[in-house]
Specification:
By secondary structure, the protein is mainly alpha-helical. The protein contains 4 helices and no strands. The protein folds into 2 domains: 1-43, no CATH class; 49-110, no CATH class. The structure holds zinc ion (ZN).
Length: 111
């Protein structure tokens, strides 16, 4: 898509910033927001969502089938993330190991 070399906002200055804007319009508060990005890379996402979804930011320790887990799945779906994190449900094991480690440290300090 070619927007020419004249600023889309003021129609006078030469375009030298993204979105078909001149320098002063691009950095003027609010102007940039009125002109959506012209980059084809910025147009992907919700509109034609398919393929590999990003992993959720963090796994959940919620038990499968619990209300907490279902709420987390719903939130992931809303954010267009994969519903299943490979580390879901293992947090409790990790926590258990950490707890044992703490006990060992405390034991070592006491002796
Ligand atoms: Zn301008």
């Amino acid at each position: 898509m070619n927007f020419g070399t004249i600023c889309r906002h003021c129609g006078k200055a030469k375009v030298n910033r993204p979105r078909g804007l001149c320098w002063s319009c691009f950095y003027r508060p609010g102007v940039r927001d009125a002109y959506p990005s012209t980059s084809k890379f910025a147009r992907r996402g919700v509109g034609n969502f398919c393929g590999a979804a990003p992993l959720p930011a963090s796994p959940t320790t919620a038990a499968p089938g619990s209300a907490e887990k279902i709420a987390i799945l719903a939130e992931r779906a809303r954010l267009k993330q994969t519903l299943w994190h490979p580390e879901d449900g293992i947090g409790q094991i990790t926590r258990h190991l950490e707890h044992e480690e703490v006990q060992e440290t405390e034991h070592a300090l006491a002796s």
